[in-house]
Amino acid sequence: MENVAQISPRPRRVRGDGPSAAQVAERLRHQIQEGLWSPGEWLREARLCDEFKVGRSVVRRALGELADDGLLILEPNRGASVTVTTLQEVFDLYELRAGLYGVAARFACIRASAPLLAEILKKSDKLIAASEAGAQADDLIHQSEVIFSLMAGTASADAQKMIAAVRRKTRWHWSYVGLAESEYPQGVFDHWRVMRAGLAARDPAKSAEGARGILYFMQSEVARLMLARGLGMQEVHRPGPLRRSRV
Questions:
Q1: pLDDT single digits (tens) 141-168
Q2: What sign for the dihedral angle of Cα 119, 121, 124, 128?
Q3: How far apart are CA 242 and CA 247, in angstroms?
Q4: Which of 10, 140, 152, 235 has its CA 20 to 30 A from that of 215?
Q5: Per-residue pLDDT for 205 more than 80?
Q6: What's the farthest any 2 CA atoms get from each other in the chain?
Q7: Beta pairing, strands 72-75 & 42-43
Q8: What three-state secondary structure class fits 136?
């Protein structure tokens, strides 16, 4: 008779082994925003399950979250497809971000503690220095988002949710591509200097003006880039269901 103590138990999969729906959604969000999925392309559940090593329920929750953010369209019996970035969407989102980021800068002047404001100013100085040293556009955009996150943290919970929602929906890859291909990339940092000066002086109006200027600059550059590439002006063809040819 076998010794029960010597029998190795079958390894059991723990529910938390794989990525959560939120983690899958975040990774897909970056893939879409970096252009790894083309507008109109279908995201098949089976492929995503295999790629992320998760079940269909996790994938479906992730796709639902991305659809809520406006990055995907869910169609019954067909699946999820990547939405099209239009010029109107770009203008609308950057307009909203400009207003919300202005509010974040204003609240930072009014509400930020001395240590937090010192950290924001330090990171702003580092960003401006990096721009002058010729840092890559994607790194500059990432640094700027960190700074705005710190400022947004001084807003109310509802305001933070609105800022987060607009940030999720903004296809940030257009921002760093637009900055990289701008004829005058330092122009955006002129606005950063205005905001930085307003923050240092705890001047809400000046800091908000600088913050809005940053987003309006990027709005202009991204729109110019899309127009130059002929993007955002036409409907994307969506492949229909396959049909069998008659012999």
A1: 999 999 999 999 999 999 999 888 888 7
A2: negative
A3: 16
A4: 235
A5: yes
A6: 83
A7: unpaired
A8: coil
